[in-house]
Amino acid sequence: MNTRFFYVVPIIACCVLLMIISMSFSNQKTHSEITVKSDTTAYIALLKQIQKSHDSILQIYNTSTGEKRIVCIENTERYLIETYYKDIIPAWLGTKWEFYGETEMPGDSSIACGHFVVTTLKHLGCRLENAHEMATNYSAYMVNSLCDTSYKVYKGDLLIEIIKKHPDDIWVVGLKNHSALIVKYRGRIRFVHSSYFLPTMVIDESIEDSQTFNGSTIYVAGNLFKGNTLTEKWIKGEEIKYRKKY
Predict the structure, then answer these.
(1) Are strands 219-223 and 151-153 parallel, antiparallel or unpaired?
(2) How far is CA 139 from the centre of its chain?
(3) Residue 1's pLDDT band (boundaries 50, 70, 90)?
(4) For the chain, which residues make up each domain, given as ranges?
(5) Rounded Cα–Cα distance for residues 129 and 238 (Å)
């Protein structure tokens, strides 16, 4: 390139460069707006489909007894794990974290860690008593409201070993200053949360490599679906009571 050109017409060159940058940011904003709108439409369609699936499952549940009802519950456990991890959670990945974030739609505004857990469970179809308080109070209260059995340990490695002994499921966990999900899916264990560490967004990361998980000094956790009464409450549309139990 002939560098003398920039000495002859520096003002023109700067103007052209500024125009290119301006157009670039303008196009990015438009593309972002279109993407969010498209994702929102798809997400709303997903929630409607979950409601339809729930209605079908409820009908099977109400017309079955004994062994057939047990099979219905077990199939529902698998459906909830699959739908939560493979459909709902991916839609939220990349949503911005903020301490007071309470958005109801992925990709729109921001979401705090407790609200991420509670909001996604509501979108799965769980009826939660005092959902806002559950999202903002001690995370141990959340765990003990959602789970029949909870584990309290003081080292992350101990919790991982407990989870490894259980079948695939999604766990809710309260850390010292954080709420999150732990997913055991096809043998792999992932840590899913609205992260206050960079990149400060909803992420799905290796639990062994998670700065947030490994930096805690206390862990209170319980599994959500396998053998947990939350599944049957979801089928019957029962409200899950908020318990202030530590």
Answers:
(1) antiparallel
(2) 15
(3) very low
(4) 36-240
(5) 10
Q: Which two tokens stand for residue 141?
A: 């209260």
Q: What tokens does 127 get?
A: 């009826």
How far is Cα of residue 239 from the mean position of the Cα atoms in its chain?
20
Cα gap 72→64, rounded to integer Å? 8
Tokens of 33: 């707006």
Residue 211, both tokens: 């700065």
Provide CB contacts within 8 A for 105, sequence distance 6+: 40, 43
The label of the residue with tokens 């899950």 reads 240
125: phi then psi, degrees, rounded to nearest 5: 115, 10
Output the DSSP codes for 124-146.
HT-EETTHHHHHHS-HHHHHHHH
Q: 197 falls in which pLDDT band (50, 70, 90)?
A: very high
Tell me: the pLDDT tens digits for 3-41? Answer: 433 333 333 333 333 333 333 333 333 323 333 444 899
In the chain, the amino acid numbered 156 is G
pLDDT tens digits for range 37-81: 448 999 999 999 999 999 999 999 999 999 999 999 999 999 999
Cβ–Cβ < 8 Å for 246, 141: yes
The C-alpha atoms of residue 144 and residue 158 are separated, in whole angstroms, by 19
Which helix or strand (DSSP H or E) is residue 80 part of?
helix 66-83
Q: Rounded to whole angstroms, how far apart are CA atoms 106 and 178?
A: 20
